[in-house]
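=== RUN LOG ===
request id: a7f3
mode: sequence -> structure
chains: 1
length: 122
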Amino acid sequence: MSLTTLLLLVIIGLLAGVLSGFVGVGGGLIIVPALVYIMGLSQHEAQGTSLGVLLLPVGILAVMNYYRSGQLDIRYALIIAAAFVAGGYFGSKWALVLPEVVVRRVFGFIMLIGALKLILSR
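=== RESULT ===
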């Protein structure tokens, strides 16, 4: 791995971590597009790598900060996490059998809808 590649990956990780801690995004909105457009990975490779990044840490230090400040509903988090495991399993199965262009378009559409909702809401 070249020094340039290493530095780019560190920058992507730092940016994703800061945004994850700041506004709760990082994996899909930062890591996946950065891996596709900066690092040249395929959509499937980028999604798999992003999930690999999130597998263990999932913002543990950020979660601890929110917990300490009383801003974490553990019951909600546990229920969502359990459903997330099932959803992640089935979502990955579907993504891997669909053509990459379909997955990329679905991903882009979801990002567009989310962006428009944020921009247009009060």
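=== NOTES ===
The helical segments are 3-23, 27-37, 43-55, 60-68, 74-97, 100-120.
DSSP finds six helices and no strands in the chain.
=== END ===
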